[in-house]
Amino acid sequence: MASLSTLGARIYRGETAYDFVGRRKFWYAVSILLVIVSLTGLGVRGLFLGVEFQGGAVFTVPASAELSTDDGRRIAEEASGNDARVQELGSGALRVQVTGLDTDESDTVRAAIADEVGLQPTEIDAELVGPSWGQQMTTKAFQGMIVFLVLVTIYLAFAFEWRMSLAALVAMAFDLLVTVGVYALVGFEVTPGSVVGLLTILGYSLYDTVVVFDKVQEKTRIVLKQSRYTYGELANQGINSVVVRSINTSVTALLPVAGLLFIGTGLLAGGMLKDIALPLFVGLAAGTFSSIFIATPLVVDFRLRDPEIAAHNRRILDKRAERGTPAPSPAAHGRIEDDGSGEAGDAADADGTGPVGTAAVPAPGNGGDNDGSGETGDYVTVQRRQPVSRARGRGRPSGKRR
């Protein structure tokens, strides 16, 4: 089996293709499993909302106090009666956060910490956030997300079609659920920085999905003008045309975000870097997955409910069954030529010319089909056109003697 790098290069050059649409039921199962794990994490552990969302107090103990995180948590919880979060800052100081405190309770906790470390209460910095301000932050965050989703739905419905708009919303919902589930499982605090990260990954997920949809729409535009390929086969060609680009873009974006997450958390003790980097890291990975394995396969399922598309697919499958021929599998970057005769040509190069070569693509014969029925096959070798070299013969001696 070729390495991943070699396989990626072959897919990029159009020498091979992966049946994303045919194996969509498997990827649906993987997606549902991830959603179940995320919902379980939310139900069992829940989200720890910061003081910005539910009010409370934040105490900063100087590094000179030499207070451990366990002692700081114990003192704050005993003095307040509420759960406390303690975080060591990069300077060696401790950040003690206790939610649901008013002014008097905040002074009590501050005095208890100062008494434990032998400092004056005024030497411990304290910030008090009222619950009304936190409620306002939560409301504004939800309003911003709803407005974003409405605008995205309208844009996709006009730019593409309503089926793609609905599939993109499902993909973004998947990204949100997985990211929030990871937050619950890891136990990170939800802060305004986390909300910024969530909104950012929604935009990136939309960008990645639109890139894939644009190529799928280009491939499937002539689906009813030809009688060689089903809608699912053409959509699968579209995904293969951009999958390498999508993965490369995501990996390039994940590397600096991973640096922010692991360096910010491990060396700089978190803070705003961690709050933004974690949702970005998880969301970028989930967005790439959903744009490839969820969005377009859902569009195919929606389109198969269209009577016109369903009848077109049946005619193609019946014709193949009568002839006893397997479904053609053009290379990933091939172009379907429409000559107006109702028949589509083989996969062609960029200008539709050139000699025919070979390319390995998924075969529908061994337990698979490329018509969007949910099954796939092995790789086979099929014909593919290669561009003619216009420089052939140039610079060669003519054979004339002087």
TrEMBL record:
Chain ranges passing through the membrane: 26-48, 141-160, 167-188, 194-213, 251-270, 276-300
Signal peptide range: none
Gene3D superfamilies registered for this protein in UniProt: Multidrug efflux transporter AcrB transmembrane domain
Coiled coil start-end: none
Biological process terms in GO annotation: intracellular protein transmembrane transport; protein targeting; protein transport by the Sec complex
Biased composition (Gly residues): 365-375
InterPro entries in the cross-refs: SecD/SecF_arch_bac (IPR022813), SecD/SecF_bac (IPR022645), SecD_SecF_C (IPR048634), SecD_SecF_C_bact (IPR055344), SecF_bac (IPR005665)
Chain residue ranges for the region called Disordered: 317-402
Ranges where the Protein export membrane protein SecD/SecF C-terminal domain occurs: 116-303
One GO CC annotation: plasma membrane
Basic residues: bias regions: 391-402
Subcellular location(s) of the protein: Cell membrane
Bilayer topology: Multi-pass membrane protein
GO molecular function terms attached to this record: protein-transporting ATPase activity
Biased composition (Low complexity): 344-361
UniProt keyword terms in alphabetical order: Cell membrane, Membrane, Protein transport, Translocation, Transmembrane, Transmembrane helix, Transport
Function: Part of the Sec protein translocase complex. Interacts with the SecYEG preprotein conducting channel. SecDF uses the proton motive force (PMF) to complete protein translocation after the ATP-dependent function of SecA.
Cited HAMAP family: SecF_B (MF_01464_B)
NCBIfam families from the UniProt entry: 2A0604s01, transloc_SecF
UniProt subunit comment: Forms a complex with SecD. Part of the essential Sec protein translocation apparatus which comprises SecA, SecYEG and auxiliary proteins SecDF. Other proteins may also be involved.
Similarity comment: Belongs to the SecD/SecF family. SecF subfamily.
Protein name: Protein-export membrane protein SecF
Gene expressing this chain: secF
